[in-house]
């Protein structure tokens, strides 16, 4: 039985390197941004039973994976019995419910592929431009969209991203004040160095 308060996040696939680090692939419904940071331990399903392991290292690896160093796993051979085993964590933020045209939220289950090419719409001002892609940049994901020929980056947090409309292929948002000026008016007085001008995905 899955330990109370835990959520299955994916499966351990293989060793990564020679020092006991394991590569796990996340379930497609699990968003990296909803996982706890630096969990103290995890659960691994071995022989039909959930076994606790202390996490010594827990790093995101894009696309859609994590690198894990577990206590007492010192090399690939020791990690081999864990290959293809399910892994679970506590305190995983629950994804938002699947959306409909009338739901207030729902972007939590939208895949990056679905977002690409959709229209970003500000609740106050209307259509902003086309979404280019979702950048995974732990600890914060960014949504890249185009305003004319200028790329703009919006942090993917519930305060700004509000509602996905699958029928219209639109993502509704509430832009933080001054965001567009920072990108469209580079002489507005803000320090451009502090901006996520070109988010780079992790390897």
What would you say this structure looks like, in words?
- The chain is mainly beta.
- It folds into two domains: 6-90, RimM (Elongation Factor Tu (Ef-tu), domain 3); 107-194, SH3 type barrels.
- It has three helices and twelve strands, in the order E-E-E-E-E-H-E-H-E-E-E-E-E-E-H.
- A six-stranded antiparallel β-barrel has the order 1-2-5-4-3-6. Strands 10-9-8-7-12-11 form a six-stranded mixed β-sheet.
- A hairpin with a 3-residue loop joins strand 7 (119-122) and strand 8 (126-135).
- The protein is elongated and about 55 Å long.
- It starts with 5 loop residues before the first strand and ends in a 19-residue tail after the last helix.
Domain count? 2
The arrangement of helices and strands along the chain is EEEEEHEHEEEEEEH
Task: Tell me the Rg in angstroms.
Answer: 20 Å
Give the terminus-to-terminus CA distance: 34 Å
Please count the beta strands (DSSP E, at least 2 residues each). 12
Mean pLDDT: 80
Strand order of the largest sheet: 1-2-5-4-3-6
Report the principal-axis shape.
elongated
Strand pairing plus helix content: what structural class? mainly beta
Give a quick rundown of the structure.
It is built from three helices and twelve strands; from the N terminus they run E-E-E-E-E-H-E-H-E-E-E-E-E-E-H. It has 203 residues and is mainly β.
